[in-house]
Amino acid sequence: MSKELPDAPKAIGNYVTYKKVGDYIYTSGHVPFTEKKKFQGKIPSEVSIEDGYEAASLCAELTISTLLANGEIENLQPVNVIGFVNADNDFQDHAKILNGFTDKLAEYFDEKSTRSAVGVASLPLNVSVEVQCIFVHE
């Protein structure tokens, strides 16, 4: 495993960040915010592709922190990743941004997940990236 993870984020609304249903775990959208780092703005005009990749990687670290705050991850595998990129209208490299998330997951899990990388006109708090996931307990 890699470096020390940030603290798991708390819900800032009427929802939970972690939900277990049977053998599946659903995580709410995680955004690239910690006390030390915040990635806000559109990619690539306000946030570079490289920083967007780092923002997505931070989302993965926060997701893993959420999983660990609710149990062990040894018997979990990612099933599905849906990533939203706050992108300029003509931006087409959403997958490069989301690689930051799935590359970080690969440091913790043996299996790959399915993934969608979606460009959007805006995200809450003007974050650059938001990612939600489904995991399965095997």
Keywords:
2 helices, globular, 138 residues
Q: Quick gist of this model?
A:
By secondary structure, this protein is of the alpha+beta class.
Q: How would you describe this protein?
A:
A 5-stranded mixed sheet has the order 1-2-5-3-4. The protein has one domain: 60s Ribosomal Protein L30, Chain: A (2-Layer Sandwich). It is built from 2 helices and 5 strands. The chain has helices at residues 49-69, 94-106; strands at residues 18-21, 24-30, 76-86, 114-120, 129-137. Helix 1 packs parallel to helix 2 (94-106). By secondary structure, the protein is α+β, with helices and mostly antiparallel strands.
How many domains? The number is: 1
Report the count of strand segments: 5
For this structure, what is the CATH homologous superfamily?
A: RutC-like
Mean pLDDT: 96
Count the helices. How many? 2
Layout: helices, strands, pairs:
Elements: E1 18-21, E2 24-30, H1 49-69, E3 76-86, H2 94-106, E4 114-120, E5 129-137
Parallel strand pairs: 3-4
Antiparallel strand pairs: 1-2, 2-5, 3-5
Helix pairs in contact: 1-2
